């Protein structure tokens, strides 16, 4: 597995491979890898010949500097996981390589109304930072396909909007959420959960599963009300939102007849903010 710290070295590696017709996949990550990330690598291998994984903790998408500081960075462990998974190359630039004129460089694109809903309400500017770095990673790799996890449902939507904005010819593949045996969605942030938090965190997947299992039996309002009631008696869990939304607009769903419905949740569990979702139909 090759490791690249600069765009130049990465481009030099990819150039002859692309010229010989190899298809390239990019798996962008911030490291602290788990089996969810490895499932992206595996799916990438089914869709391309050369797999590049980027590891870069992007400062411009953090609204809370403390969150950026405490973001886990177990690099040796990450590299071993990627090597075992058969990843071809890892791009791990430093901040100056990605933001030569400083992380406060100008960036603003229209991502549509959905930018300001859900996560956008709680993490102002987050999706500007995400699309800013993903555009830079796309420019560095110029992949044929790029893989993103469904767990960050809104992120995938924002990246697709960014792609449309720049008319980039990259296929986005969304990979299903990988869960622990008890239902907890895998996340780099789970490492921060105490034993009690870890148990309490199950309320997220349980409330989503309730909606999926009972969709036919209740109205949308009733489903949401009952799902929210799961949080009433869980100490140390603070619900930010639970919504059943249209998967294209993220606006609250108005009718069960809509074709693309997803239940999304965000909650603070102890000191750790978790998100999860389930596609209903
Ligand atoms: O999902 C993530 O890990 C990040 O938001 C991403 C897409 C790698 C951009 O920094």
Automatic annotation (TrEMBL):
It catalyses: (R)-pantoate + beta-alanine + ATP = (R)-pantothenate + AMP + diphosphate + H(+). PANTHER family: CYTIDYLATE KINASE/PANTOATE-BETA-ALANINE LIGASE (PTHR21299), PANTOATE--BETA-ALANINE LIGASE (PTHR21299:SF1). HAMAP family: PanC. (R)-pantoate binds at residues 61, 155. The keyword Acetylation does not apply. ATP binds at residues 30-37, 149-152, 178, 186-189. This is Pantothenate synthetase. The lineage of its organism: Bacteria, Pseudomonadati, Bacteroidota, Sphingobacteriia, Sphingobacteriales. Homodimer. One of its GO terms (molecular function) is ligase activity. The gene is panC. Keywords: ATP-binding, Cytoplasm, Ligase, Nucleotide-binding, Pantothenate biosynthesis. Pathway: Cofactor biosynthesis; (R)-pantothenate biosynthesis; (R)-pantothenate from (R)-pantoate and beta-alanine: step 1/1. InterPro entries: Pantoate_ligase, Pantoate_ligase_C, Rossmann-like_a/b/a_fold. Belongs to the pantothenate synthetase family. Beta-alanine binds at residue 61.
């Amino acid at each position: 597995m090759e490791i690249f710290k600069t765009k130049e070295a990465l481009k030099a590696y990819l150039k002859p491979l692309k010229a010989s017709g190899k298809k390239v996949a990019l798996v962008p990550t911030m490291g602290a890898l788990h089996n969810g990330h490895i499932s992206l690598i595996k799916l990438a291998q089914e869709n391309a010949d050369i797999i590049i994984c980027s590891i870069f903790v992007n400062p411009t998408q953090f609204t809370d500097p403390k969150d950026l500081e405490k973001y886990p960075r177990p690099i040796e462990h990450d590299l071993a996981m990627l090597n075992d998974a058969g990843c071809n190359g890892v791009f791990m630039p430093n901040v100056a390589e990605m933001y030569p004129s400083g992380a406060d460089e100008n960036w603003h694109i229209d991502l549509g109304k959905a930018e300001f809903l859900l996560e956008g309400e709680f993490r102002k500017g987050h999706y500007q930072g995400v699309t800013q770095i993903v555009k830079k990673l796309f420019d560095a790799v110029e992949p044929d396909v790029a893989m993103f996890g469904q767990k960050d449902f809104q992120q995938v939507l924002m990246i697709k909007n960014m792609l449309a904005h720049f008319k980039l010819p990259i296929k986005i593949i969304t990979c299903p959420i990988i869960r622990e045996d008890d239902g907890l969605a895998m996340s780099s942030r789970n490492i921060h959960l105490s034993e009690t938090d870890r148990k309490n965190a199950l309320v997220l997947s349980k409330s989503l599963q309730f909606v999926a299992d009972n969709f036919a039996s209740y109205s949308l309002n009733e489903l949401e009300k009952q799902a929210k009631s799961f949080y009433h008696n869980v100490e140390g869990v603070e619900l930010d939102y639970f919504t059943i939304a249209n998967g294209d607009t993220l606006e609250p769903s108005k009718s069960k007849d809509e074709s693309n419905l997803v239940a999304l949740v965000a909650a603070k569990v102890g000191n750790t903010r978790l998100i999860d979702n389930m596609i209903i139909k």
